[in-house]
C-alpha cells in the first residue's frame, strides 16, 4: 500500500535587513532564527515536509510561493512568516515590501489549482503598525462602561483565498514583540504544538494561542508591561486538525 503524501510547510524567517545600496534599514531580529528552527523541527515531527528559508528578498519570497504551486501536497499547507512588517505587508531582507494579498493571490484557485481544496494555514509574526498595546484590566463583574471606540477590523484590502486561515501576531495597527528569546506569538505556537493542544481543531488551537499570549505574556525592558493580542481570520468550511499527527 502506498504511503499518503506528506503535508508541506514553508517557513520564512528574515533576521538581517539591508537596502539595495547596502544601508541597514531595519534592526536585526535577534532570536527569530532559533525560533524558526524549533518550529521547523516540531513540524517535521508532526509529519510535515518542511522548507526553512533564511533572509529572502521580496522577490525570492514571492518565488518560494510560486514554487509551491508546482509541488505535490498532502492534506495541509502551513506557512510561517517571521519578519518586519506593517499592515498588509511583510518585508524581504532587501527591505522591499511584499503585499500579503500578493502571496494569497499566488495561492488562489486560479493561480494554484493544486491547492484549491487543501486548507492553507498562515502564522505571521510581524508588526502591523506602530502602536503599543497597553492592555486592559479584566473585570469579573460589570463595571463602568467603556467609551465607544471604532471596532477593530481586518483591512478591507486583505482578502484571502478559499480554504485559508491566517493568524497574525498582533491586532491591526500594533507592534509585535520580539527579543533574543523569541516572539510572544511564535513561542505560544511552539508551546501549543508541543502539548496536547495540538490535537485541537484549528480554530480552537488558535483561540488557545490568543489566550496564552494575552494572559501569560508581556513586554520587558523599555516597553515594560505592554501586551500583545493575536487575531485570526478564516474562511475554512469545516473543522480541520492539521497538527494531530
Can you describe this structure?
- Helix content is 24%, strand content 21%.
- With 245 residues, it is an alpha/beta fold.
- Strand 1 (7-13), helix 1 and strand 2 form a beta-alpha-beta unit.
- The longest helix has 15 residues, at 202-216.
- The two termini are 19 Å apart.
- The model is unreliable at 136-154 (pLDDT under 50).
- InterPro entries: Caspase-like_dom_sf, Caspase-related_regulators, Pept_C14_caspase, Pept_C14_p10, Pept_C14_p20, Pept_C14A.
- It comes from Spheniscus mendiculus.
- Residues 182-244 form the Caspase family p10 domain.
- GO terms for molecular function: cysteine-type endopeptidase activity.
Describe the secondary structure blueprint for this structure:
Layout: E1 7-13, H1 32-45, E2 48-54, H2 58-68, E3 77-82, E4 85-86, E5 89-91, E6 97-99, H3 100-106, E7 120-125, E8 129-131, E9 164-168, E10 173-174, E11 178-179, E12 182-183, H4 184-194, H5 202-216, E13 231-234
Parallel strand pairs: 1-2, 1-3, 3-7, 7-9, 8-10
Antiparallel strand pairs: 4-5, 5-6, 9-13, 11-12
Helix pairs in contact: 1-4, 4-5
GO molecular function: cysteine-type endopeptidase activity
Family: Belongs to the peptidase C14A family.
Domain Caspase family p10: 182-244
Amino acid at each position: 500500500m502506498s504511503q499518503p503524501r506528506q503535508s508541506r510547510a514553508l517557513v520564512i524567517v528574515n533576521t538581517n535587513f539591508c537596502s539595495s545600496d547596502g544601508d541597514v534599514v531595519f534592526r536585526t531580529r535577534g532570536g527569530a532564527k532559533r525560533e524558526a528552527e524549533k518550529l521547523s523541527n516540531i513540524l517535521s515531527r508532526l509529519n510535515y515536509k518542511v522548507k526553512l528559508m533564511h533572509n529572502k528578498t521580496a522577490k525570492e519570497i514571492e518565488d518560494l510561493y510560486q514554487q509551491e504551486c508546482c509541488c505535490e501536497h498532502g492534506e495541509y499547507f502551513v506557512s510561517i512568516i517571521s519578519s518586519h512588517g506593517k499592515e498588509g505587508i511583510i518585508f524581504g531582507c532587501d527591505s522591499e515590501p511584499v503585499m500579503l494579498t500578493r502571496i494569497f493571490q499566488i495561492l488562489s484557485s486560479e493561480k494554484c489549482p493544486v491547492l484549491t481544496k487543501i486548507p492553507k494555514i498562515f502564522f505571521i509574526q510581524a508588526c502591523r503598525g506602530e502602536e503599543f498595546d497597553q492592555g486592559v484590566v479584566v473585570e469579573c463583574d460589570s463595571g463602568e462602561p467603556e467609551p465607544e471606540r471604532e471596532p477593530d477590523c481586518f483591512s478591507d484590502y486583505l482578502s484571502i483565498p478559499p480554504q485559508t486561515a491566517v493568524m497574525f501576531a498582533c491586532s491591526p495597527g500594533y507592534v509585535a514583540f520580539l527579543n533574543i528569546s523569541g516572539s510572544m506569538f511564535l513561542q505560544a505556537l511552539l508551546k501549543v504544538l508541543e502539548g496536547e493542544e495540538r490535537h485541537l481543531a484549528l480554530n480552537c488551537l488558535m483561540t488557545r494561542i490568543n489566550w496564552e499570549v494575552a494572559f501569560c505574556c508581556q513586554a520587558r525592558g523599555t516597553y515594560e508591561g505592554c501586551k500583545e493580542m493575536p487575531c485570526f481570520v478564516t474562511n475554512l468550511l469545516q473543522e480541520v486538525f492539521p497538527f494531530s499527527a
